[in-house]
Amino acid sequence: MTAGAWRAWLHEARRCGPGALVLPLLAALAAWVATSTGPGGGALLARALLTMAVPATTALACATVVAREPMAELHLTLPTGYPRTVARRLCWPAGVAAAAAGALAAALTATDRPLDTAVLLTELAGLTVLLTGCAVWATVRAGSAAAGAGLVTAVCLAKLLLVDRIAPHGAPQGLPASMTGIALTAVALQALGDAERSGVLTRDHQEG
Questions:
Q1: pTM
Q2: Is the pLDDT of residue 65 over 50?
């Protein structure tokens, strides 16, 4: 990676803000504490934190990343398209989430808790991609991170109250979730590209 490319990635990290880079790590820590100190059978709260804390906080961070850009006019003058810029920014919370999930699985494996690491990581990855796709799509569509947060909350409740009761954990949940999340993210980025080409991005910023 050239020095210029590295500076561009660091700039995008700063644009994400510290919250987007720290929240997934704090969520992983909370999930580890709840799971490692809870009852051996696994309480509902501990299970919910284990499977949803990192994905939900990552999705909320991504919703913040793609929320209204304060310098929309500047992006329209740059050679790099705005959707590509947003995608590059999303790589930061996604990368932090991957590291947090790996650290969480490793930390739990070191305890005496029965844990299938492959199942946990598959479910974490799938739910993270799904919730991120939901957050990005809703934020782009509504122009507000609040819409993304609302959809993420609804999906988390649906998983906890419905999906976990009828679908096995691991790949049966993770793979469909991943495909759905990727599709939603692609649709959202396409919408940003269409808005950029039509000038809607700038008009929205001026009206906001």
A1: 0.84
A2: yes
